[in-house]
Amino acid sequence: MSAADEDGVFDGAAELDVAGQRCGVRVRLAGHLSPIDGRYHWQGLVYGAPEDLAAGKAAQLWIGDRSAEARLVERIPSGQLMISGTGSPPYDLAAS
């Protein structure tokens, strides 16, 4: 599945590429259209990313054949990485 559910949340398999290092991960993502800038802002958690990935890095997130530029925001105490992006997300919004 590469589409968000009826609540606008995508939860599934993805690939994270940081500086050419690509790894399989699971993500849980959601977003919204900002009335301030008129752009779609999405964010969420990355599960299973290598522990040496540091916050603040640029990344490319792939879900199926879709991808989007992203930023690794921070690693939370439970170990997951927070990720965010602006613009078209790497998942289909059709179901949301």
Summarize the structure.
Strands 1-2-3-6-5-4 form a 6-stranded antiparallel barrel. The chain has one domain (about 10-85). The protein has strands at about 10-20, 20-35, 40-45, 60-65, 65-75, 80-85.
Structure overview:
The chain has 96 residues and is mainly β. The chain has one domain. It is built from no helices and six strands. The chain has a six-stranded antiparallel beta barrel. A hairpin with a 5-residue loop joins strand 5 and strand 6 (81-86). The protein starts with 9 loop residues before the first strand and ends in a 10-residue tail after the last strand.
**Count the helices. How many?**
0
How many structural domains are formed by the residues? 1
Number of strands: 6
Which segments are poorly predicted (pLDDT under 50) over 5 or more consecutive residues? none
Shape: globular
The largest sheet, given as strand count, sense and whether it forms a barrel, is: 6 strands, antiparallel, barrel
Radius of gyration computed on alpha carbons: 13 Å
The whole-number mean of residue pLDDT values reads 92
How are the strands of the biggest sheet laid out side by side?
Answer: 1-2-3-6-5-4
**Based on helices, strands and strand pairing, what is the structural class?**
mainly beta
Order of helices and strands: EEEEEE
Helix content: under 10%
Strand content is over 45%
Topology of helices and strands:
Elements: E1 10-18, E2 21-33, E3 40-47, E4 58-63, E5 66-75, E6 81-86
Antiparallel strand pairs: 1-2, 1-4, 2-3, 3-6, 4-5, 5-6
